[in-house]
Design brief:
With 493 residues, this protein is mainly α. The protein has 20 helices and no strands. 83% of the residues lie in helices and 0% in strands. Helix 2 runs antiparallel to helix 9.
Length: 493
């Protein structure tokens, strides 16, 4: 996954240089607008994955097949519904409200249609991806992801050698890659999982359960989408495509870093849900608490190096750095670090199935990002104010999640703070206290940048290992590392 992260970041450098700041900004806002529809697929994916995993935990294979086939029917209905909305209201918004030059309008429409096709194919693949997650076949994700990022890197290099219509060709190539990858997932599932054999039948009861669960989950997903992509639209309306380019770069960095966390969480979630299905709450909380800490550490270790060394890194990484990129990256990373602590807590909530009140309260709080950001920008605040608002809202949402979870499951809040929050706070504070004073003594040269990044990675890793982990966890990690090293040595012999 580290290889995928590095390739993704390098691809961003190549494509920004090839497209230019304006075209990259246009692609970011148009593709971001289309991705607003992913709130539907995202909420359904969580719902489908939850139901399949729950039945696997209860060892009910026939029910798994019913859930899968019913979910495919749901996706087809949504496919048609979203296509109608996107080609009417969405198309009107793109052509009448986005802040783009008339000369770019043709390219914008091409990008919109190609991004829409990409999204619709991704929508149809949701049941297959959910099944892979439920079966914990993470190696499949890893290998297919390597193929995907390699193809995207080749596209980026190819775009640099094209003289005209770069934006349209880039969107077309990404669409073709996405469609191909979706078929790969479908073929893999059909070959490995019995429940993925399509019968185009559905269970009315399961249909209603998935829609009810996903409906409330949709509310939370919509609020998150407005925070991310809705603010992207606001940036376009208030500042234009250059600020969108900065937002796009910050999202690429965040996505690369957060991919490490999400792969860890995706692997952990089925274990939590299956334990909940058999009412093994001790295992549920043990996995969730450990998962909350490790989710934070996995992202924090590379993030602290980026936050404290952002300007030299950007100068080394990008040929042309859009304005506001540095502050956007720093603030976005902080917000996502806060959110990552809640990842496994949300999994417990989803496993319980009791999400109505949770989504109304927490989703309602998260929804405040959009109107507060609009108000701040309308009053003349700089673009980074939207990120400060998102950080404050993220803290409030974290507190509300704990309160809501306490009402649904017997979670020990005191134990959570002593086992999770206190360790996270200690690792974070000591890392800053040690690393910030060192910075003035290291030059901003390329060599100095690599030296300081290495120091940051080393110090934060040691602190996370010795102060952020229990003795049991340190032993398990050490044994696992030794096993990997021994297996490598045996292979080389």
């Amino acid at each position: 996954m580290i290889l995928i992260m590095l390739v993704t970041l390098y691809t961003s450098r190549v494509i920004l240089a090839a497209l230019g700041v304006d075209d990259y900004g246009i692609y970011t806002v148009v593709a971001g607008f289309v991705s607003l529809f992913t709130v539907i697929s995202g909420s359904l994916s969580a719902g489908i994955s939850r139901f399949i995993t729950f039945e696997l935990g209860k060892e009910s294979e026939n029910k798994c097949q019913e859930v899968f086939n019913t979910s495919v029917v749901v996706q087809i209905v949504l496919f048609i519904s979203i296509l109608l909305i996107a080609e009417t209201i969405g198309l009107w918004f793109i052509n009448n409200k986005l802040n783009v030059s008339p000369a770019s309008l043709t390219a914008v429409n091409w990008v919109y249609q190609l991004s829409l096709i990409t999204f619709l194919f991704n929508l149809l693949s949701v049941p297959y991806n959910a099944t892979i997650i439920a079966h914990e076949r993470m190696s499949a994700f890893a290998y297919i992801s390597i193929i995907e990022v390699t193809l995207k890197l080749l596209i980026a290099f190819s775009i640099a050698h094209i003289s005209s219509n770069k934006l349209i060709i880039y969107a077309l190539c990404l669409m073709l890659v996405s469609v191909a990858i979706r078929f790969v997932y479908a073929i893999y599932c059909n070959r490995h999982f019995e429940e993925c054999k399509l019968t185009f039948s559905y269970n009315r009861g399961i249909f209603k359960q998935i829609l009810a669960f996903s409906g409330w989950n949709f509310f939370g997903a919509a609020s998150a989408a407005l925070r991310d992509q809705g603010v992207n639209v606001l940036f376009n309306l208030f500042f234009g495509s250059v600020v969108n380019a900065a937002k796009g770069v910050s999202e690429q960095v965040n996505n690369a870093l957060n991919a490490l966390v999400q792969n860890f969480v995706v692997a952990l979630n089925p274990q939590i849900i299956k334990s909940y299905a058999i009412n093994d709450m001790d295992t549920v909380f043990s996995l969730a608490f450990r998962g909350a800490r490790f989710s934070y550490y996995i992202m924090f270790i590379p993030s602290i190096a980026i936050i404290l060394n952002i300007n030299p890194i950007l100068s080394f990484w990008l040929k042309d750095v859009p304005d506001f990129t540095a502050i956007f990256i720093q603030l976005l990373i902080i917000r996502v670090l806060i959110d990552n602590i809640s990842n496994t807590l949300i999994t417990i909530m989803l496993a319980s199935g009791k999400i109505k009140q949770y989504q109304i309260i927490v989703g309602g709080m998260q929804l405040m990002n959009f109107p507060l950001s609009y108000l701040a920008l309308k009053l003349g605040a700089p673009p980074q104010s939207a990120f400060y608002i998102a950080i404050v809202v993220a803290i409030m949402c974290f507190i509300l999640r704990l309160i809501m979870l306490k009402q649904i499951v017997p979670i020990n809040i005191k134990s959570f703070f002593s086992n999770v929050m206190s360790r996270i706070f200690l690792v974070t504070m000591l890392s800053c206290v040690i690393l910030i004073p060192v910075k003035p003594f290291i030059s901003d040269s390329t060599l100095g940048m690599f030296l300081y990044v290495t120091i940051c990675l080393l110090i934060s890793t040691l602190l996370a290992f010795y102060l952020g982990c229990s003795q049991y966890e340190r032993t398990k990690i050490t044994n696992k590392v030794m096993q990997v090293l021994q297996s490598k040595l045996i292979l080389h012999k």
